[in-house]
Amino acid sequence: MAANGTAVGQGACPGPFLQEDLFSTSGGFIGKTFMWGALATGWGVPAIGVTLALVFSGVSFRFGDTCHINHKNSLAVLWIPLLVFAGITVITQFATFGYCIKVYLASLVDDSTTTENSGLPSYTSSVRGTISPKQAYRRVKRVMELQWRGIVVVLLIVTDVIFFAIIFVFMDDIATNMVKNPTKSTAWLGCLIQTNGNKNKCLSLAQHIVVNQATVMAVLLLLSVNGVWVLCLLGRFSMFTGWYELIRHRVKPNTDHTTLAGC
User: Fold this and answer.
1) Dihedral angle at the C-alpha atoms of 80, 84, 87, 88, nearest 10 degrees?
2) Is 92 exposed, middle or buried (0-12, 13-18, 19+ CB in 10 A)?
3) Burial group, residue 120, by CB count within 10 angstroms (0-12, 13-18, 19+)
4) Residue range 32-44: average pLDDT?
5) What is the pTM of this model?
6) Mean pLDDT score of the chain, rounded to an integer?
7) What is the Cα Rg of the chain in Å?
């Protein structure tokens, strides 16, 4: 307390709160626990979800040459859990963001309290007794600089998941209704018979019974670029240099020890 009070009394500002501080105790134990827990969750939950979907619903070529999950139990084992996890992701991200803002703003009051308890004469105790709008803005801006990439990635992925789920559930319902009520496709089937199976000549008759191609292509395009967004927003140049150094040392072993031994 005295050391901290002296530092504040001399006009030094406390360093910003960093997420790395949460994992710096116990010789990195918390960091390793978090790392392995994140890896186990990131790989384990999707693996369990795919297994449940294959066991209780299964897949088949339902949309032309596209393999898709069957209608039976698909809502319970895939679509609803997918949307639930998407909602949990959004809540977790913004809860973390709100907590960081709370800690940043609370640190201003904590700094003022530390200065007053130190008993050192300093005008900062009167100036920093309350949080000014400018101070709050600077703190919130700092949090945004640390968190905006993660927020953007979460929003992009969740938007894709919701769009994907809505479109494919709608396609699934259309295919199921066509089986139950085949009279809706009578004109299209008759056209196929007359044209010897030339579907291109009958596309105009099928537009009202299927999701349009542009919508499906938009879903597939959004899903395909998710990895690109993650790389652009969360990637670092040091990742490429790290892989380069790892591969270079594996291909070309380090000869420093041999050179020193020869000298």
Assistant:
1) -170
2) exposed
3) middle
4) 87
5) 0.59
6) 74
7) 29
